[in-house]
Amino acid sequence: MDANEDQELKVTFYPELFLQRRIWILNVLRREGITQVLDAGCGEGELLTVLCQPAPWLPAPPSSILPLSPSPSPFSTSPEAPESPTYNTTDDIPNLHISLVHGLDISASDLAFAIERTQPPPEPEDITGGMGYRTYSTGVQRWEDLQVKIWKGGLEAVNEAFVGVECIVSMEVIEHLQPHILPAFAPMLLGVYHPLFLLITTPSYTYNARFTAPTAPPSARKGFPDPTKRTDRIFRHSDHKFEWTHDEFLQWCNEAAETWGYEVKVSSVGRAVEVDPWGREDELGGATSVAEFRRIDGSGGEEREREHRGRAIISSLKLDLGSPPNHALLATHTHPAHPSSQHPLPRPAIAQRAKSKMEEYREAFMRMEELWFERDVSIACGGWIEMLVRAIEECPDLVLKKEDEGQTRRSNWVVELVGADIVSRDLWAGENRSLDCVVPRDWTPGEGPHELPGGSSDEFDDEGESAGVDGDVSWGESEGEGEEPGWGGQLGWSKFKLKRGEGEEEGEEGDVRDWGSVLGDWGSDGEQHSVGAIPLSASSSTAGWDGDDDGSDSDTTS
């Protein structure tokens, strides 16, 4: 036996395993357009915090607000494209439009954190900042009302507020249930509450073999013996009452789905960064087993039948529900929509506001989403980004460029101000430049992908944030004495060549964009989604990367 076979193997995950679980959950919620969620076993509220983030804009307005145009706009560079389409399409990550969130847990200390995390944020300060001050760094407006309710109690007690909720999430919960509580899990969630969707994640015991060599002795596996003494398995957490193999989980899911009238898809997430020396990746699957239950709706009355049968089973189990026997509502938070939501100004007024912003910033080109995150622009649109699209298309002073050498993602759309006097500048010219003029005020030396002057590069570090995440970086050079400076000390209309995607040819010298359009956000799919210095949007997959460093469990072993 190899001397190292009596030791555990190094197994790490990227992204971290808790993030991969969360991303899987959020992807299903986005795909299905879920608006109501119960997080059963919410803990400190990591998922709740993400669900409380507002969507950057409303769903597309009805035709009564924005009728479809029968002909393309004469000012659009894509005459064959439909005018003012729904902004989120299949080539973008859709936004979540959550209206109701429930959080349930039995730990009072964890729920205290959840209550604090889900509180409405303070009202944004009315920062004017003077000419050229960019407001999109101060946060995203909320366009839809959201209600959050935090409950204390166990899964075995019926909560009437959860009956018929659209989606229930149970993330790393089922393996912690006591043996006498586990039989109530499916009857309660799939029977009494009968959601349209139930999403479950749980550790895969099958994957635990990945932590040791195939010939390693049992003593090589570090962990926690089965506390119930029913098996000789070593678990990943001291509070786990069981850990199912992939096949055991699949069997449980299939039986529950058949019993309660659901269809289920079982898979796994979480593959190690390190290559397994014994080639067991396909055999072991992922570290976390996941299941997506979808309710099968047939003739009327099936929901009532499920609920009645579930209540009967829960009653027959004669569980000790404790005192008090019902869930306690600890907090209710209301996140109100902005007063301008769904009350747009006339489209000419919207276009004038967008034009004025570009003139104020001395920008000949701005990404449309960059304009959107100017607070007064989005407020003028009443939260509908399609109103901004149409207003720009109808304005003779603005041109919406929807395509650029095959790039058709909505996040790449660029607005041009017609007749702007574009001045070409050397971004790094000048020997006595103050760092305060060329980097954001909150930038920390050594962080971010961009080098300092003298070592400039427009390449990106795919493991870090773009330099423009927290603040706009406008690199300007004084063009002469006596000229009126723009924002951040820059003069003249900004010009910078658009960064091309990998494998694309560089554009002509006449193809110019502002500096914000070359900064990017790297999504979980490995592609660069140009975000510039604006907050997270529908095109940014970071909506699923909440950045919470979850220390509640070890992501190398749980």
Automatic annotation (TrEMBL):
What EC number(s) does the entry state? 2.1.1.386
Q: Where is the composition biased (Acidic residues)?
A: 546-558
Required co-factor(s) are: Mg(2+)
> A Gene Ontology MF term for this entry?
metal ion binding
Kindly give the Gene3D superfamilies that the UniProt entry links to this protein.
Vaccinia Virus protein VP39
Q: Where is this region: Disordered?
A: 68-89, 439-558
Which top-level group of life is the source organism from?
Eukaryota
For this UniProt entry, what's an example GO CC term? nucleus
What UniProt keywords apply to this chain's record, in alphabetical order?
Magnesium, Metal-binding, Methyltransferase, RNA-binding, RNA-mediated gene silencing, S-adenosyl-L-methionine, Transferase
**Gene Ontology biological process terms, A to Z:** RNA methylation; siRNA processing
So what does this thing catalyse? small RNA 3'-end nucleotide + S-adenosyl-L-methionine = small RNA 3'-end 2'-O-methylnucleotide + S-adenosyl-L-homocysteine + H(+)
Keyword Metal-binding part of the UniProt annotation? yes
Answer whether the UniProt record assigns the keyword Cell inner membrane to this protein: no
Q: Where is the composition biased (Low complexity)?
A: 74-85
**Residues of the signal peptide:** none
Similarity comment: family membership: Belongs to the methyltransferase superfamily. HEN1 family.
- Protein name in UniProt: Small RNA 2'-O-methyltransferase
